[in-house]
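Hi team,

Below is the intake form for Polysaccharide deacetylase family protein from Microbulbifer taiwanensis. Please confirm the fields before the structure is written into the shared record.

FORM ID: S-0412
PROTEIN: Polysaccharide deacetylase family protein
ORGANISM: Microbulbifer taiwanensis
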Amino acid sequence: MRCKTALALLLAFSSIAQAKELAITFDDAPRSANGFFDGPTRAKTLLAELQRHKIAQVAFFSVSQKLDREGMQRLQAYSDAGHIIANHTHSHPDFNQLSLLEYTDNVDRADELLSDFPTFRKWFRYPYLREGDTQVKRDGMRAYLQENGYLNAYITLNNYDWYIETLFQEAIEKGLHVDMEKLKTFYIDVISAGVDYYDQLAVTHTGRSPKHILLLHEMDITALFVGDLADALRSKGWHIITPEQAYTDEIAGYRTQGVMKYNPGRVGEIARDKGQKSRLWHETLDEGYLRKRFKAEVLEEKESAEF
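The structure came back. Fields below:
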């Protein structure tokens, strides 16, 4: 009996230790919407998709310059539904192109405009994930975040979902027929491949699967398919957790000593610091690769020739 009990406890502990957990976050909200959906339709569809697929909470990293009347209403709808609103700067600048003061001023402006939302959190995500191309800028921004009570809202699961959206909208604009089921399958396959890759990269360099943060964007394909993506990930053993839970992982306190002009995300930082010099970005983070697959897997042969 004791042996059976010990074995059960060991299996339970092993299951917990190897638990695969991820939170879903959306950048660039409220992102421009003038293609397949308009803004209100995107928001309504996205909120319904999250609710229907039992995704309790996500985080919207918001570019405050987009807060015109419609953008404000869209962000308010997300907040009213209990989702987190967080800071993604005022105008989405590239830190590599600005001074530290210019950059912090941009973050301050967003803080002023976003802090009235009831679900606002002092979380900051760097546009393009670029955290400073010099040590002075990197350390200056780290000090700014600490002094202003901000969490560096890093990501661990990177992808180019925004380019899949570009391909989708381009096809719609050209009047091409997009098979939505094929698009869904393509989208899920590409995002899932990246999730698997970065999780294995984390296991390789940390010995475990951390609480992951998935980077997506507030876009039409997200509104259409994020629930199906969540279900597909669940079928592979993933548990969808809240961003607040995800940011309790111990890698939240990790700080690379390197300076990276282009940042692949927290797992990529760790891998590089452990000595890995290549494949910090998965193969799906390539525009040419995605366009080739989109033409072959989503469009009909005749339309593929026109794309």
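SUMMARY LINE: The longest strand covers residues 20-29.

Thanks, M.
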